[in-house]
Design goal:
Length: 187
């Protein structure tokens, strides 16, 4: 395991039991028995390390998802497995990193599925707008489910399961209809 990976793993482990505001470079380095200078060789600060985690984080099974519902269910499963880490991050100054993480995972996977959605009658540029709007809404809903101080993984999972059903049955089709209407008006 590389030094960078050790820092990432240690931070994720520490976030299981304490808020990000209680973790600093010294406590992280003490946990790993490394010098502070080693940390600064790789990262500028704790938030730089956190950003690196989210930039490189893999969501198991996401690349195998072939429908929008599967994408959301995969992200939900990831969220439940990583609840403490995500909740602690959402409750910190790094909350935008988590929202951006979900947004990027959703939009990237949706756009890669465009060929499967060509039968909805909108060109790729319009589908990108649908994906962008959908990803923004979903990432905000994930944030809402995790940001409540009194939440736990079961409450968040329950709320997001309901939301996923609504998002796939109502929100996505509504965004496609909106895109079609916008296209008509622009012609």
């Amino acid at each position: 395991m590389t030094t960078e990976q050790k820092f990432k793993t240690a931070l994720k482990e520490m976030l299981q039991t304490k808020p990000l505001s209680d973790i600093n470079v010294t406590t992280l380095c003490d946990k790993l028995h490394l010098h502070r200078q080693t940390f600064y060789y790789h990262y500028q600060d704790i938030y730089d390390l956190l950003a690196s985690i989210f930039l490189n984080e893999d969501v198991p099974g996401l690349s195998d998802c072939n429908t929008i519902r599967e994408i959301l269910e995969c992200l939900l499963a990831y969220s439940v497995r990583n609840f403490d880490f995500l909740h602690s991050t959402y409750m910190s100054a790094g909350s935008d990193l988590v929202s951006d993480f979900f947004y990027n995972k959703i939009i990237t996977r949706m756009i890669s599925l465009y060929s499967a959605h060509q039968n909805i009658g909108i060109p790729k540029a319009s589908f990108r707008n649908v994906a962008r709007r959908f990803a923004i809404n979903v990432s905000q809903e994930f944030e809402f489910a995790f940001k409540n101080q009194d939440t736990n993984s079961l409450k968040a999972e329950r709320a997001l399961k309901k939301y996923i059903s609504s998002a796939t049955a109502i929100l996505y089709p509504a965004l496609v209809s909106l895109s079609k209407e916008e296209r008509k008006r622009s012609l």
